[in-house]
Structure formats: C-alpha cells, structure tokens
Amino acid sequence: MATCYTCHALLNRKNQSWEHIIPSALGGSTKSRRILCKACNEKAGSTIDQALVAYCRNQLDKFGIQPDRINSSQDWKPQSFTSEMVMLAVHKILANFYFWKWKPASRILHYDSIQKYFRVVPRFYPELPIHLIYLEAREHTGWMTGYIELFGEIGFIVKFETAFAGKNTAALFLQEPVHKKEYVTTAEDRTQLIEFVRKQLQANESDFR
Predict the structure, then answer these.
(1) How far is CA 33 from CA 16, 18, 84, 100, in A?
(2) Are 86 and 54 in contact (CB under 8 A)?
(3) Pairing between strand 108-116 and 31-32?
(4) CB atoms < 10 A from the CB of 81, how many?
(5) Is 110 helix (H, G, I), strand (E, B) or coil?
(6) CA distance linking residue 38 with residue 31, whole number of Å
(7) Can you state the angle between helices 83-101 and 48-55, rounded to 10 degrees?
(8) Apex CA 30: angle with CA 38 and CA 142, to 5°?
(9) Tens digit of pLDDT for each residue in 131-174?
(10) Within 10 Å of residue 28's Cβ, how many Cβ atoms?
C-alpha cells in the first residue's frame, strides 16, 4: 500500500489527494494520488508551492500563464518568499517525480542543492517554454542527482541521499506549461537530452564537494 513520503501515513480513500508533480499553478498537469496525503499536500500548497509560484511570476507573465489555483482548496495569492522556501519547493518537485516514476520503498534522507543557469531546454526547443525534470540514480551509492529547469529559464541541481541500491538509472520528464500537457519527444531527442544534461551535471559536480 502507498504511503505519504512526507509523514509516512498509509494512504487511503479518506486521506489521499491529487498531487501535481509540478504545481498546477506553474502549468503542471501530471498528477498522482499515491505520493502525498491531503494534509501534507495542502500544507505545501499554501506555503512553499506558493513561494515558488511567486518566484516564477515573471515567467508566468511572460508566457501568459495564470496561476489561478495553487491546489484544490485554496486560491493562489501573491506572497513574499525566501530562497529557502523556493528550494524546498524545488526539492518537493523532484521528490514527487522520484516517488511517482520509480515508486521506491526507500525514503529521502538528505538534500543538497544549488541554482544553476546552464539552460538545457533552449538548446533543444528554443521556440517553446518547457519544464524539464531529469533524475539519475548512481549504482550502489545511495545518492540521486536531479536537474529541474522551469520554463527553460530557471535551473536547479539537486542531490539527495536515499537507501536506493539499484543499478544506474535515468529518467526524463518534459511538461509543456502553456497548454498543460506532457511534452512527448522522439527516442533520439530523449537520448540527446539525457546525454547533454548528464554532461552538465558532471561539469558541476565540484560544486557539491
């Protein structure tokens, strides 16, 4: 049975809720009912998710995306934010993707993150605003490395520690925020994207040492 990855409560019909991998207020549409309980979802939606939306306000205006609702229970309202709140929201996006994509039993133990601007999306899709999530697992190390690029303009590198002990694995996700749909690429494009992101992450490895 699925559990909330934040409070570890068993999810059931009473406490489960739809959690967007990327907040719907940022143009995210992919969601799951098997990663966060309702209480944790609503708490994050009213705090760190709103902070990230406020942080991305220029991009939302630029691409004509109206953040009318941050979650199912609360209207979005402009608010002040701190860099810590923004990074916590970024960590949550990557955690959402990790538990949605791989459904691991292991918990996230520790985060380390920095903001970067090497901009992957414009290199491959200069005509589109796209959200990108990339996550790779390193065999037997217990460390995952991820990259999130919002609107093709704001990038974050995140490393986190888990009890994951599987083989080297990589996952890529693209979301087109204007029309709120997953962006589908060819296998060749995905291979090129993954290789490019991997090289960029390797080039920035020293920032975490």
Answers:
(1) 6, 5, 27, 9
(2) no
(3) unpaired
(4) 18
(5) strand
(6) 13
(7) 110
(8) 80
(9) 999 999 877 677 889 999 999 999 999 998 887 666 778 999 99
(10) 19
Interatomic CA distance for residues 173 and 100, integer angstroms: 11
Burial (0-12, 13-18, 19+ Cβ within 10 Å), 152: buried
Distant-in-sequence, close-in-space partners of 3: CB < 8 Å, separation ≥ 6: 9, 10, 11
How confident is the model at residue 47, as a pLDDT? 93
Please give the DSSP secondary-structure letter assigned to residue 183.
Answer: P
User: What is the value of pTM for the model shown?
Assistant: 0.91
Instruction: Answer yes or no: are the C-beta atoms of 182 and 173 closer than 8 Å.
Output: yes
Tokens of 91: 């960590």
Continuous H helices in the chain = 38-45, 48-55, 57-62, 83-101, 121-124, 187-203
The amino acid occupying position 45 is G
Q: What are 17-72's pLDDT values in tens digits? A: 999 999 999 999 999 999 999 999 999 999 999 999 999 999 999 999 986 554 44
- Which two tokens mark 163? 């009890």
Q: Residue 33: helix, strand or coil by DSSP?
A: coil
Q: Which residues pair with 32 in a beta bridge?
A: 19
**3-state secondary structure (DSSP) of residue 112:** strand
Residue with the two structure tokens 């999130």 = 148
Both tokens assigned to 49: 């998710």
